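Please review this one.

:::
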Amino acid sequence: MKKFIALTATLSLLISCGSSDRGELVGVRGKQWRPEKPYGMTLIPGGAYIMGKSDDDLANVQDAPTKTVTVRSFYMDETEITNSEYRQFVEWVKDSTIRTRLAILADEMGQKPGGEGGIGEYAFKDQMVEGEEQSPYDKYMYDNYYSLGDGDDPYAGRKLNHQPKLIQDPQQYPDEYYVEVMDSMYLPASESYNGLRTMDVSKLKFKYSWMDIAAAAKDKSKNTRAKRSKYMIHEQVEVYPDTTVWIKDFSYSYNEPMHNDYFWHQAYGEYPVVGVTWGQAKAFCAWRTLYKNAYQKDKGRQEINSFRLPTEAEWEYAARGGLQSATFPWGGPYAKNDRGCFLANFKPNRGDYAADGALYTVEAQSFDPNEYNLYNMSGNVAEWTDSSYDAASYEYVSTMNPNAPDPSNRRKVTRGGSWKDVAYFLQVSTRDWEYADSARSYIGFRTVQDYMGTQNTGNQ
């Protein structure tokens, strides 16, 4: 052991002598890094603002007293997440679910890639074509991890083969095994009507893991490894939106066309997605991060930081668009401009939903954006935030990046009001909430990403 240490020290000395740093402390240098603005997002420069109600609290809720706070810079989606964007998530999960089932059945039947076009072409990537060899890394990982799985999933860690395209035409299915897998993805024929078989959307589940860093940081245990595993959270979420919300949210009302067409039909592709729970919105953020980082890795680029839901303070700061003490994103105090046109999609009069030009939602890029180029921060759909609702939270949260994330509190803050709300809920300071496992026809979301660096602030 002593000889090994001495040899290591000698090698380190030789490497230092042969380097170009001349023995100086220059730090570890990597590739030059520049911030890249994510597609469809805008940069919100950090700064301070007065959070809370500066106007009279007409509803007398008294849950938003004024408080000066500071938030860091972040990127935010210019629009609410649309049906088209969320469908990309659903289609990815569907594709992965089918490929996983094909790979598992191929494994059980002993089928491997061989160019014959059967289910073996969709086998796990560790099932190599005869004559090929695995790299030492892949062999080691398979022998010591992937082939063992875990307690809940014997196939955990095994990589899917995304190279062969999935075959959609039933008449072109390559073999009976492929037919069996595809048949398992649909509802039974007895539950179909009008000659159409419907996908069983309850099988479209997204699995991801995250670490509760805040809770782990407060743990005083000295066993770091045990502490880490203790706070690893594993989620499995059904991703398909609840389209029945259009009917359940409104008793004695005919909204079946929205239930039938709103999410999947391309006519509504650029409208905000609704019917998603807080948990589904969080899953979308995890998938978006995974999807982008897979591309970054493939191109040999540095991974990005995570997409996430905005905190309540970040949402309000962004909605104000740099205007201090404003009632609405456009200033206020009125919801009409000087020509008498409504400035947002909401319920302006008693039951007259269409007075603003829309009966339900409108396209996500409708009406004028605020000074941060954010559309529909008031109206259209209310938006999930990462914060838990506590009427007294403004009294105790920090003045720096305030947030109240309480996992035991299932009431999550929603902001901005929606197409079915009166103007009070459109005010940038109005707080509202919904249960995390509830889906509504008037609640959507948008995502944010932390800005890497501190030099960009709105106070410069």
Summary: Confidence is low (pLDDT under 50) at residues 7-16.
